[in-house]
Amino acid sequence: MKRLLTTRDAEKMAQLYAYLQHHGVPVTVAEQGQNLELWLTMSSYHAHAKALIQAFNENPQLAQASLAASQLNEEPPTPPSFLQQMRSQAGWFTRAYAAVVVLVFIGMYTSFIEPILSALLFNPNDFEALPWSEPWRFITPAMLHFSVLHIVFNVFWWWYLGGRFERYYGTGWLVLAFCVCAIASNTAQFLESGPYFGGLSGVVYGLFGIATIVGWKNPRHPLFLPNGLIIFMLVWLVLGYTDLLWVNIANTAHTVGLLSGLLVGGTIRGLTHLAQQRQE
Question: What string of DSSP letters covers 92-133?
Fold first, then answer.
């Protein structure tokens, strides 16, 4: 990401943002104290973006008139379908992994349940040894779900948080965050209770931790979470340690997933801050 400009003029920022978006330049606006910062999310557009900003600054009225005229000549856009909206909210890895999770869940209700469990459980033949000879098992429990409520809850939050994360930070960062949170939460749960567990919840709580850190007190950030949602997720985490819930909860996976997500989120926020300082 590259910062294009900083201003306190909200009206100018809104106009410039619309102007760049209209010309296909991928930009986002972040709030830094009392300043508004315009960021370019794909560096390959940098030269084009600078040229458009220069044209806008030299003659804002002409740029706005050009934008308004082109909008008048355009046909009214067709409202996107529900599936199009869903696809637009997630990158390819978010969609692909959600599809894998659903297919595995369907397979659990067929005659393939035993080979599925044998292939995906953390270490079904040992309650103590880590599966170093089969390293995929550190991740694959995140593909297993044991009820409709379980998979609906996890896939929804995976799509909501993972999709936004992938769109904003890129697929590479999501894959890294997924691996860190899955490995940490699955390993901790295995050491606590043995191999018979599954679910994407550890990763979901990891993404929740990331979103809490990177979007903290920044409503313009795509991963910003309102206080009510943060409180709900934390209350649900605490309730898992009581006997009040009607379902079995992998509490250790949730807690360690959250902690690993906070670590990843802190790393991302720190790297972003360093990048901003270098550009100042």
Answer: HHHHHHHHHHHHHHHHTTSTTHHHHHHHHSS-TT-SSS--TT
Report residue 122 CA to chain centroid gap: 25
Q: In the structure encoding, which two tokens stand for residue 278, read together?
A: 């270098």
d(CA 264, CA 258): 10
DSSP labels, 18-54: HHHHHTT--EEEEEETTEEEEEES-GGGHHHHHHHHH
Q: Rounded mean pLDDT of 175-197?
A: 95
Q: Which two tokens stand for residue 233?
A: 């997720």
Q: How far apart are CA 124 and CA 221, in angstroms?
A: 42
Q: What tens digit of pLDDT does each residue of 132-165 get?
A: 999 999 999 999 999 998 999 999 999 999 999 9
Beta bridge partners of 35: 32
The answer to whether the beta carbons of residues 204 and 157 sit under 8 Å apart is yes
Give the pLDDT confidence score for residue 76 in this predicted structure: 55
Cα dihedral 200, 205, 208, 213 in deg (nearest 10): -140
37 bridge partner residues: 6, 30
Q: Which residues are catalytic?
A: 201, 254
